[in-house]
């Protein structure tokens, strides 16, 4: 059964089933899967997140140590998936953009070449250290905290009691991947050296054309979200008070803190009232899913603009603590032909497109304010045209707790 569910054909069937459910909520209208699917994930990064996106973590650490300031930056993740093979030759597709985006007339959606996995175990390295998990806003941790994960024990197959694996109740939304597309293309990629300008605007006409999908065209009326600004300041009894500006477009907020000590111990705290670390909450999430997560007390409501990090978190990771805050935003959906209003008429779209928005910031706890990191940007700091996708890719662990444990145990990340 496991092999069946993880096969490529099964994943495609599950994707089609999920599309059918999403296409006509609350109705019995029949819908067939589209030929092409397209997604735009648009982000606004501020604080250390902007520096890491523009010049790598080296630039972010330089700013943290007083070597410059950062203005907000934008990110775009474009993905095209199709059920068709290229009409002729190699796969080719382009996203033709409004002039306000500032990336030229178009950017190429490149089909990645398959390559052997770089992930492999590091021989002779023994796991060491612990991971302490905390969650919830408040001066003191709630019952059952922290959950302590001893990496040496995990390597032997001993998982701590009470551990709730990440993402079990977080809704998974349809995604475009190489694995669920006959032909696939994306941007950023290794073919261009472009970065999204800080003053970029998404407003206007967008068109996607290629030799393996029908033409996709729509007009965007929602621009990038504003940047998050705020403070991370010391509170009573060793707590840390997080506060931020309310974004009008925000549908909810999620914060996390990660720290490490020289002895190998690490601490991870999340603002959720239940255990929810990494995974989908680090992604772009639809407003409907955010509402469900607010109901589950995983995501903070848009009316909330502050959260207290327990003192125990700072004590557990006193050598270095880094925090991050996500603001989930609106979503725009397009399709051709549009879904008929009459539920008795079957819907057979040629293509569907989804645009999602978010804003995020990153900072050192009790270090520079999130807002001060953005003001008075040094133009020289931002003049480097190196795109993050052009830098040599490092091995990555998967998102969430599983990837964290794999990295800590030297399992090839």
UniProtKB/TrEMBL annotation:
UniProt keyword annotation of Signal present: yes
Region (Disordered): 373-398
Domain of life: Bacteria
N-terminal signal peptide: 1-23
Keyword entries, A-Z: Signal
Record's protein name: Uncharacterized protein
Organism annotation: Sphingobium rhizovicinum
